[in-house]
Structure formats: structure tokens, C-alpha cells
Amino acid sequence: MSSPAAPSSDSRPPLYVRRPLVAGLVRQWPLFLVIVVVGVGLAMVALDHWRRGLLVVGLALAVAALFRLLLPLPRLGFLAVRSRTMDVTLTAGAGLTIAVLALTLPSD
Known about the structure:
By secondary structure, the protein is mainly alpha-helical. The chain is built from six helices and no strands.
């Protein structure tokens, strides 16, 4: 009869057990990156740099569309909501629309 192997003293539990918040951020890095960049753009808008801020938000959405197009499904996390075609079309369309509007609206 064989006995199960005893865990070695130097084996550590996986990251999701030791630090669940860090593991969640690592798993959701594309979404986290997009949210941070959108937050920077909105902060720029709040600081009265609306044109640059909206351009940053639009480019962040375009990058989200590129992530959805290029990364495999397990790496995307919550960026994958609908079908790939629908996600890329809607996200890229919104991002490019915001960026074009930010560049073409007349200044005050």
C-alpha cells in the first residue's frame, strides 16, 4: 500500500491562496490597465484638459478592443462580455468616436 507524498517544507501555497487581491489583479490585468487609463483621462477632463482627457479615454477603449481581438479568452478576464466580433466592434467604435469628437470639436 502506498502512502501519499507528504508536502515538502519549502512548498508554498499558490498565489490565489496567499494573496487573493494580487492574484485577481494579475488575472484581470487587461481590464485593470484599461480602467486605470480611463481614470487618468477622466481626471484630465476634471482638471479642465477636456480635449486631451477625452482623447486618452478614446484611446483606452481602442486598446481594450485590441486586447479583445488579440489576447486569448483565458487572459481577457472581464473584457470578454459578448462575442469577439461584437466586443471589438462596439469598443473600437466607441473609442474611435470619442477620440474623433475630441479632436474635431471646436475649442472654447
